[in-house]
Design goal:
Layout: E1 17-21, E2 28-29, E3 32-33, H1 37-51, E4 55-59, H2 76-86, E5 91-93, H3 101-108, E6 115-118, H4 134-139, E7 144-147, E8 169-172, H5 174-188, E9 194-198, H6 207-216, E10 219-222, H7 227-233, H8 248-261, E11 264-266, E12 270-274, E13 288-291, E14 300-304, H9 306-317, E15 321-325, H10 338-349, E16 353-356, H11 359-367, E17 376-377, H12 381-388, H13 394-397
Parallel strand pairs: 1-4, 1-7, 4-6, 5-6, 7-8, 9-10, 9-15, 10-11, 15-16, 16-17
Antiparallel strand pairs: 2-3, 12-13, 12-14
Helix pairs in contact: 1-2, 6-8, 7-8, 9-10
Bound molecules: adenosine-5'-triphosphate.
Adenosine-5'-triphosphate binds next to β14, α11 and α12.
């Protein structure tokens, strides 16, 4: 699928006030940013708008403040980090109401190429409900709106959607463009064979993803906790493994669907089991490997086994496009991370286009040291999943077509 949206390359922002929705929802510990990936990912768009002589007004949410403004959710640390990364002043407009006296004054005093960061958009209770007057207040600051927060594009909020009711000139930024191009091409127009790998805890979280990807891919690989519901649907004993009994019929339906469509659906053929879930999650644990049809009734499957690692890696070797979402086991525990590492390694070793959905799988790939080996690691967990489900994301839909 070709992105048919207006981009920052199509607009002229010289001397104009440009409101940019970024995703600065970074992890913080005691007020210190522990991972600034999302800030660096936003830089190309911000730099482009500065170079073009726009007056760049940035906004984002951070965390989930429940009852309005809270110091621990302030974007102040982001302003400092952003200023370091850009090598220029970023004026932080610290208003509890986001569009307050500080913001209005800061914007009024901007020269071309200046940067202002507004306070956390979720300090306003209207934000997540997409209600007025916050949308029009945000819009009143600018003449152009740029959406670059892929991680928030699956939510119709004031700052991702409502604001476009009041600003005519809209565009997507480079990060949005990159995410949509990678994920969109993979799903809609993949170089084949296209192998999709799904893992993670629950089948229920990925019902639509499984169904949609089955239609689009050549091979669907299922590992992680969700595989055991499929194994049970095949009539296998799964012991104490994670199972969703309400989704057994769904799994049968998906296996039938794969057969009808002539798609390969790969499930674990062996599994690493233990007497129970590790507690704490990274505690040493005694494990053994059993075939997928011989899981003892008193054991829990916590990772894919060695034969499955090979089976999945072989499937990846034949692929030209690979999309991966969800770990193969309890990767937080080094003893149970082997399956996830094997899949990461298989992706690292191939010349295929490799795309990692956000969230836990992105965290696993980064934590295990494979980040620079992947073609694309999405910055949005929920957003990339909804994209893989084939949904239209509200934050993309509101941006003008070319
Ligand atoms: P996101 O949508 O954020 O990318 P994800 O799909 O990557 O999430 P989740 O569905 O949240 O991942 O599942 C990840 C969790 O699943 C991990 O914490 C991991 O420990 C757990 N998990 C993986 N395999 C198993 C298993 N066999 N039994 C129990 N838990 C498992």
């Amino acid at each position: 699928m070709k992105l048919n949206k207006v981009t920052v390359d199509d607009i002229n922002v010289k001397g104009k006030k440009v409101l940019v929705r970024c995703d600065f929802n970074v992890p913080l510990k005691d007020g210190v940013i522990t991972n600034d990936n999302r800030i660096t990912a936003a830089l190309p768009t911000i730099k482009k708008l500065i170079e073009d002589g726009g007056k760049v007004i940035l906004c984002s949410h951070l965390g989930k403040p429940k009852n309005g403004p809270e110091e621990k959710f302030s974007l102040a640390p982001v302003a400092v980090r952003l200023s370091e990364l850009l090598g220029k002043d970023v004026v932080f407009a610290n208003d509890d109401e986001v569009v307050g006296d500080n913001a209005k004054k800061a914007v009024a005093e901007m020269n071309d190429g200046d940067v202002v960061l507004l306070q956390n958009t979720r300090f306003r209770k209207e934000e997540t409900k997409n209600l007025e007057p916050f949308s029009s207040e945000l819009a009143s600051l600018a003449e152009v709106f740029v959406m670059d927060a892929f991680g928030s594009a699956h939510r119709a909020h004031c700052s991702t959607a409502g604001v476009t009711d009041h600003i005519k000139t809209t565009a997507v930024g480079y990060l949005m463009q990159k995410e949509i191009n990678y994920l969109g091409n993979a799903v809609e127009n993949p170089v084949r064979p296209f192998v999709a790998i799904l893992g993670g805890a629950k089948v229920a979280d990925k019902l639509n993803v499984i169904s949609n990807l089955l239609e689009k891919c050549d091979t669907l690989i299922i590992g992680g906790g969700m595989a055991y519901t499929f194994l049970k649907a095949q009539g296998k004993e799964v012991g104490l493994s994670l199972v969703d009994d309400t989704k057994i019929d769904y799994c049968k339906e998906m296996m039938d669907k794969a057969e009808k469509l002539g798609k390969k659906l790969l499930l674990p053929v062996d599994t690493t089991v233990a007497a129970g879930f590790p507690d704490p999650i990274d505690a040493p644990i005694d494990v053994e490997v059993v075939d997928a049809d011989s899981i003892p009734a008193d054991m829990e499957g916590l990772d894919i086994g060695p034969k499955t690692k090979e089976l999945f890696a072989d499937a990846v070797k034949t692929a030209k496009t690979v999309v991966w979402n969800g770990p193969m086991g309890v990767f937080e525990n080094p003893i149970l991370a082997k399956g996830t590492i094997a899949v990461a390694q298989a992706l690292a070793d191939t010349d295929a286009t490799t795309i990692i959905g956000g969230g836990d799988s992105a965290a696993a790939v980064i934590q295990l040291g494979y980040a620079d080996k992947m073609s694309h690691i999405s910055t949005g967990g929920g957003a990339s999943l909804e994209y893989l489900e084939g949904k239209t994301l509200p934050g993309i839909a509101v941006i003008g077509d070319k």
